Amino acid sequence: MSILIVTEKPSVARQIAAALGKPKKEGNHLVVGEYVIAHAMGHLLQFAYPEYYGERYKKWRLEDLPIMPKEDAWQLVPISKTAVKQLEEIKSLWAEADMVISATDAGREGELIFRLIQEYVGIEKPVKRLWLQSLTKETIREQIKQLLDLSELDNLYASALARAKADWLVGINASRAFTVVSKREVFSIGRVQTPTLAILVDREKEIQNFVPRIYYKVKVRFEVDGKSFWAESVREYEQEEAEQLAQELVGKTLAVTEQTEEQQKIKPPLLPDLGDLQKFTSRTFKWSAQKTLKILQKLYENALITYPRTDSRYLPTDMKKQVVGTANQLETVFEKGDWEYVKKLNNRGRIFNNARVTDHFAIIPTGKIKELKGDDERMFNYVVDRFLAAFYPPAFETHQRTVFSYGDHLFEYTAIRVDDPSWYAILGGKESQDLLPNIAEVTVLETAAEKRQTRPAPRFTDGTLIAAMETAGKMVESEELAEILKEKGIGTPATRAEIIERLIEMGYVQRNGPQLIPTSKGIMLIDALREVKLQSLTEPELTGEWERRLGLIEKGKETPESFMWSIEEYVRDIVKTLSKEESSKTLKSKQNMPIAKCPFCDGYILEGQKSYYCSNWKEGCKFRVWKNMNGGVITADDVRRLVAEGRTRLKRFRSKAGKAYRAFVVLKDGEVAIEFPTRKKNDGE
Description:
The protein has 22 helices and 27 strands. Strand 26 and strand 27 (about 670-675) form a beta hairpin. The chain is globular. The protein is an alpha+beta fold.
């Protein structure tokens, strides 16, 4: 008997083959006894581009929209020449097999990948499903004895197929319609990428419109039992009042009017999901979300960690024995910390929860050890640390607040003393501070009037944008959709990193170090969609509504046909709206809106793909600032400041030798130039 196993990736094929015996390579597949293991390479197939449905669709014309293949007319095409070769091998092996096992990734997308291959092959064979959450030999051997009938996942496939078709219909038609009407450059619109861009655009506008407010805080220093402490005013002051009060307070007595202490129990963080790790690496290592996913995928394919594309932070209850086994294996190599907490399954009620496990469970190490280097090692070590820390008892802290008074003026000293660091020893935590003893008054020995300034919300990084995508439900008014988005967010753990990279690829967003900044093209797209009353394309409600209905399809409570009918109506409305004359006028009015007045002539500064340039460049104006200058990123905001003030803020650049340095971009003698900051001389010079 010959059994064909089809996996999603080559590495998974190797893992399964190794678990089943000693594999032999034949062609581009592996053979182990009666098993033949072939692999895809992620997606091998995609829905055909519009031109496959008619020669006229090669040209982008409004009168040909909307493009809507009939239910039985959707065409699948290989995504590349390599995919064609791989599909032919799978088809040949499929024809020879007595049974086929789907071993693609466990989830909606994995189900879609196999079913599309099955449709492309078109050969009837008995098919079973191998549902794997981990790639250890033990798990593979156990699960291959418990194969599912493929029909058990028909509803999951139906929802995956409906989602893929709906994304094609909205993306193809909205992108073509907007591009044709704008008559400028190619635009891409998508159910997830456009609301994500809107999040970035709204934050950028908030920053640009922010008006900082200056205020002062008065600080006082005193000593208790030979130790020095600083307290800060509760109120905010104007400069003159703050300086007068600071001068007056020296030598004065402050009375203690309130002193409270509270011990707090700080539980360790839950086990990580993909988003959690992407947020950590963005914050700590300054990695992109894509880099983090790539490294985690590599660790998974080497069977060092469990499946990384997960949005769950819990484990199923039947994994307790496996967790103990993992702890026993890791303890011999990772000596930091107390592994007895894991082996005794401390916090088991918090960690093991079937109700909170989705298609996949939290990311944990498998127990397998392999020599790693560089970023791979850093990532794996952190996953191990999170695994160990999750089983630790809570840390304990004492939080103290002391309030002092001087007439109507109140001052506050707050401190946190770490009483029991517990899991802080694994993941790091707050530094312990000195608490004040019970006192009635203190004498002010020194004061300071400190100038402060309110700041706008920071620009997004990969990590904070992923957090915003995960919590998109906060932006939704409908309670039902907000609840769905609370669980799902916009995008999936597997696609959020790709969405960020797609926004950059389309010229909607540019990176400035770890920051993600929308370009004028990105801002124009969001503004125009909202102005022509297609704001639904910019809002997370669309995804919430889709997810709600796709969830119903998965449960068999809605038909794919009713879902697709509503999508087709929505697409017709998009095309109809963009076809109106007022939409064309709106888009035309927003074409390349000026960033600022040119400082060299009477023209205006415009944003191009690679630079900011003057509208009078044909007449010889030489104003030009490259977006990527000397290894640094120049934003539209930098150009506005350059024109208004003659220089940008200090920017980070990199020399040809790779050395980092900081400098200004300045206007000097009718040119744009780099200027280094003036060094302050030492007092002794």
